[in-house]
Amino acid sequence: MAFKLVVFVALVAAVRAGVPYGYSAPVAHVAAPVAYAAPVARAYIAEPHAPAHYDFGYAVNDPLTGDSKSQHEVRRGDVVQGSYSLIDSDGTKRTVNYAADPHNGFNAVVHKEPLAVAVKAVAPVARIAAPFHGYAAPALHANYY
């Protein structure tokens, strides 16, 4: 029942809002037509299609970690040629030469070669122990929560 009362009061308030002060006759209001904007057709100007041409290459040789790899690739239009090499976990160097074109598709040739490992002879080193003074530095502990 309270809902009906609220709706009735809102309706009366809406009607009274359209009536000028001191004028008792109802004023007819006609809703203005809703403006509709048609979607704007966008004309995209196609850029002339130029075939891709690039040369790309990189190399990594880190003696500290032993990471050694390289790649080089050349593209002229739809023809791609390149190669990459890396050191596999078994100690061999893998080199892959590849080519791709619309007529032959993708072709790759893999070569594996063992790496030449130089063994250095190390002379024994005499080690002298530092004198022990009976003091150990306190250990640092990190607490993670």
At a glance:
One of its GO terms (cellular component) is extracellular matrix. This protein is mainly β and 145 residues long. Helices cover 11% and strands 34% of the residues.
Polypeptide structure, described:
The chain has a domain at 53-114. It is 11% helix and 34% strand. The chain has one helix and five strands, in the order αβββββ. The protein has one helix spanning 2-17, and strands spanning 53-62, 67-76, 79-87, 92-101, 105-114.
Spans of 5+ residues with little confidence (pLDDT < 50)? Answer: none
Radius of gyration, in angstroms, nearest whole number: 41 Å
The multimeric state of the shown protein is single chain
Strands across the major sheet, in which order?
1-2-3-4-5
> Based on DSSP secondary structure assignment, what is the total number of beta strands?
5
Number of helices: 1
Q: Could you give the order of the helices and strands?
A: HEEEEE
Shape: elongated
GO molecular function, one term: structural constituent of cuticle
InterPro entries: CHIT_BIND_RR_consensus, Insect_cuticle, Insect_Cuticle_Struc_Prot
Pfam family, one: Chitin_bind_4
Signal peptide: 1-17
What's the arrangement of secondary structure elements?
Layout: H1 2-17, E1 53-62, E2 67-76, E3 79-87, E4 92-101, E5 105-114
Antiparallel strand pairs: 1-2, 2-3, 3-4, 4-5
Task: Record keyword descriptors for this entry.
145 residues; mainly beta; 1 helix
